[in-house]
Specification:
The chain is built from nine helices and twelve strands. The protein is α+β, with helices and mostly antiparallel strands and 296 residues long.
C-alpha cells in the first residue's frame, strides 16, 4: 500500500515511510528490551494503571490449560465481557460477549457461545493461535459501550481513537470506525473507516475508506466530516499521561470514550502504523520536523 499515492500535493520525502520510521524514530526512541511493555497487554495495564491511566477492568485471567475446565463457571458470573489474547494484535482473537434474551452468552453478531466453544477459544489463546504459536494468556475484561457520539456513527461495535505520541507529545490523531465489512472491527485494513482529526480541536476533517474519501458511513448513513469529538482536551491529556508513564517515546495510543464520556486506554503500540498519514492528509515526517522533533 503506497502512502505517496494518496498524499497528493506533498513531496515524497515529507512522508514517513516504514524504514525511516523504524530507523529514525523507533530504534533510537524505543529500547528493544522495553517492547514487551507495549506488546503484552497485561504488562502495559500494570504500568499504566499504576500511573493512574484509566483502562478497562480485568475480570479474570486464564494462563494454563488446567484452568479450561473452569472457563464456563467463571464467565457465568458476568452478563457481558470481552476475551482477548494478552499478546494479540490487529484485533485477532478478541471475542465480545453479552447475554441474549435466553440468558446464553452470545457474540456481538448474535452467535451463541456454548461452554465447549468458550473453552476452545480460550484454549486457542493459551496455545498461541493468535500470537505466532507463542504461549499466551487469555484476558477477560469488562465490556465497554460506546459514547453516544460514537454510537451514532456505528452502534454495533466499538470505535477507537488512535493518537501518535512522540517524545511525550501527541502529534497526529484519527478515529477508526468499524463497518459491517470489517466485521465490527475498528481496523482500516479490514474495511474500517478512518476519520482524520484536527489535533488541537478534535474536529473530524475528513473520512477515508479503502483509499478514497467518503462523507457518510456506508452502513448507518451517519455524516462523518465536521463532527466534533466530545471532551477532546481530556483525550489529549490521557495520551500525554501514557507518554509520561512509559519509557517508550514513539507510540500509538488507542483510546475510547466510555458511555459517560471518560477517556480510557485500550492498548499502546510500539510500532504504530503509517496509514494515519493518508487518513489525516498530514505527512508525518514533515509534520514532526515542523514541531521541532528531530530524527534519531
Amino acid at each position: 500500500m503506497k502512502l505517496f499515492n494518496r498524499l497528493r500535493g506533498h513531496r515524497a520525502e515529507a512522508v514517513l515511510g516504514m524504514n525511516r520510521r523504524n530507523l529514525a524514530f523507533i530504534l533510537p526512541r524505543n529500547p528493544r528490551h522495553l517492547f514487551p511493555v507495549a506488546d503484552d497487554k497485561l504488562r502495559a495495564k500494570a504500568v499504566l494503571t499504576a500511573a493512574g491511566v484509566p483502562m478497562p477492568e480485568t475480570l479474570a485471567l486464564f494462563e494454563r490449560f488446567d484452568q479450561l475446565s473452569g472457563v464456563e463457571a467463571t464467565l457465568a458470573r458476568f452478563d457481558e465481557c470481552v476475551i482477548k489474547p494478552a499478546n494479540g494484535s490487529g484485533g485477532r482473537g478478541i471475542l465480545v460477549l453479552g447475554r441474549g434474551a435466553d440468558g446464553a452468552l452470545r457474540t456481538a453478531r448474535g452467535r451463541e457461545m456454548t461452554g465447549d466453544a468458550l473453552r476452545r477459544h480460550v484454549g486457542d489463546i493459551i496455545f498461541g493461535v493468535y500470537t505466532l504459536d507463542h504461549p499466551d494468556v487469555a484476558i477477560v475484561e469488562r465490556r465497554l459501550h460506546p459514547h453516544p457520539f460514537f454510537e451514532r456513527l456505528y452502534p454495533n461495535a466499538l470505535s477507537d481513537i488512535r493518537i501518535i505520541v512522540v517524545d511525550g507529545v501527541p502529534v497526529l490523531a484519527m478515529i477508526r470506525v468499524p463497518t459491517n465489512a470489517s466485521d465490527g472491527k475498528a481496523n482500516l485494513h479490514q474495511g474500517g473507516i478512518g476519520l482524520g482529526l484536527d489535533l488541537p480541536t478534535g474536529r473530524v476533517t475528513r473520512a477515508w475508506l479503502k483509499g478514497r474519501p467518503v462523507d457518510a458511513h456506508p452502513d448507518t448513513d451517519a455524516p462523518l466530516v465536521d463532527a466534533q469529538v466530545p471532551g477532546w482536551p481530556a483525550v489529549l491529556d490521557c495520551a500525554r499521561r501514557v507518554g509520561a508513564a512509559v519509557d517508550l517515546r514513539f507510540l500509538g495510543v488507542d483510546l475510547v470514550l466510555s458511555r459517560a464520556g471518560d477517556p480510557m486506554v485500550l492498548e499502546i503500540n510500539v510500532r504504530p502504523g503509517l496509514e494515519i498519514q493518508n487518513v489525516t492528509g498530514v505527512p508525518l515526517r514533515a509534520h514532526l520536523a515542523t514541531l521541532g522533533i528531530a530524527e534519531g
